[in-house]
Structures are given as C-alpha cells and as structure tokens.
Amino acid sequence: MTTASAPGKVYLFGEHAVVYGEPAVPCAISRRARVTAERREDGRLRVHAEDLSLDGFTVEYSGETDTPPDVDVSPDLVQAAMGYVDAAISQAREAAGTPEAGFDVTVESEIPLGAGLGSSAAVVVAGIDAATRELGVELSTEEIATRAYRAEYEVQDGQASRADTFCSATGGAVRVEGEDCRSIESPDLPFVIGFDGGAGNTGELVSGVRELRERYPFAASTVNTIGDIVRQGERALGEENIEEIGTLMDFNHGLLSALGVSSRSLDRMVWAARDAGAHGAKLTGAGGGGCIVALDSTEETETALRFTPGCEEGFRAELDDEGVRIEQ
Ligand code: MEV
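Above: the input record for the complex with (R)-mevalonate. Below: its predicted structure, written as tokens.
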C-alpha cells in the first residue's frame, strides 16, 4: 500500500488566459489531497473517496467506477472526480509498463471539488505518484507533472493548461507559459480564501471564453491584457510589493468578470474582502462559483467573509513549498 499527497493551489494571476499561451502564476497552498493505491490481483479498479469538501459532506463510494455513488453532491462532479482517478491510474500503468495492473484507490481530500483550488490536479498528481510507486517505479517530479497534465488534458477534452498539475507536483509559486513551467521566488503571501460552497464546470467555462474570444476582437485583447497583468505581477512579486500585487489581482478579477466567468457570489466575496481592507481579491481557477483569493495579513478579511451572504467558509491558507510527497 502506498500513499502520496499533493497540494491544491490558488491562481495569483492568469487563469483562462494561460489556455491561450499567456503566462500564469499559480501558488500551491497548504490544503492537500491524499491518494492511497493498493495493488489488486484481479486487474480491476475500485475507488473509495471521502472528504471531498472542506466540510459539509462526505463522498463514500466503494463501488466500481461505472456504478453511480449515492451521495448528496452533483453526480457530474463525482463522475468527473472518478474520471480523474481513472486517467491517473492509466498514466501510472503506462509509466510502469503494466497495463493490466489493478488497484484499490482511496482518495482523501481537504480541497473542495471544482472550486478553483486545483482538486483534480492534486488528485491526479498524488494518484500517479502513489500508483507508480506501488508498481515499483519512481518517477521524477517533472514526469509526474507531465503525466498529470496528459491525464487532465484527456478528461477535459483537450482544454487544459500545464499550470494546475505543474504547481501541484512542484509546490511553491510557479510560472507557466505554454510548455515552459518553472518555480519562481515569492514573498510570503497572506492568502485568505472564501468558498461559496459551489463549483463551476471547467470545460464549459473554458469553452465560453473561447467563444467570446473568437467572436469579439476585444475579448481576445482582454485575454492578452490578462497576460500583461501577469508580466507586471511577476515584477511586483520580485520586488515583494504586496500593495501592487493586490492592485493587479483586482484588475485581473475585473477582466475575468468581463469574460463571463465570475458569479454573483464570487463578486460578493471579492467586494467583502476589498471592503475589509484586503490588498486585493479575485476569483481563482475556472470560476462560475467556488473560491476567491484575497491578500490580507490581518484578521479582517477572514472575519468579513464569514459574515458575507453566500460565503460558506472563509479561511487562511499558507503558500506550501512542498509539492507531491510520500506519506507514511
Ligand atoms: C482551471 O483551474 C484553470 C483554467 O485556466 C484552465 C486550465 O488552465 O487548464 C481555467
């Protein structure tokens, strides 16, 4: 039996635009998904998943992956989560040269599903590491990141960048531009996260931006402008200028909103954070619902979020320098 874990992430800047070759800066956070893989001799795959939210519900699923589990979360989300586990196991089988290997897989996650904190990337990264090691093969972090990207790409019908999976595999702050992925220096960032209890459909949201971009030249320019914000943001990170990083996050949120990927509850949480004195706030990830990230080293934003209608949970998260790791 082998257990690996990998962190979730927030996007400081650049989601959506990264799909079109602009740079993005995701940062790993101290919330993890843990995947345990245990070899089965009959070649089958059985998945047991629990705690797929920050709190509130537990997914208990012990059937085969083609049996719908009886849970109070959207079946689409659960099916998507199982699709990621399947894809991770396929990558592990291929990497180890054992296409018939069967597994019992257990997923325990502190990261809400589909909420912009990189739950699927963390599950795929940890799943590939756990399953390959269980088969006696140790992959480099780079290879885990590459294989995790392929798994996401497959599940999301080709609509995925390398950002989430690379960040989850390596930890820390990273910069992704097309195939160029690297770790970057970052000051300690006082992340505060607001979660509305919901989730967005990444595939649909990415398609929506694609359609706008094809239809309107100014939507294409908006995507390019997000790239400019990221480049400016990298300079601000290098100068450890938290004030400017916050201003750029606000700007980035406005443009994501213009591209149609915000929501009423995300906007409400963003404004609650700004009103509470945060340096800046924006949605994180695909949008449509889920999480916002703000920068505030005081208690104010966290407290304000807890009292914001539509915000289910407000909490602080540290930048996590550790990527995928084996758990004892
Ligand atoms: C989703 O977490 C981030 C997007 O940019 C899609 C991707 O990069 O794969 C919306």
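Notes for the reader.
The chain has a mean pLDDT of 91.
The radius of gyration is 19 Å.
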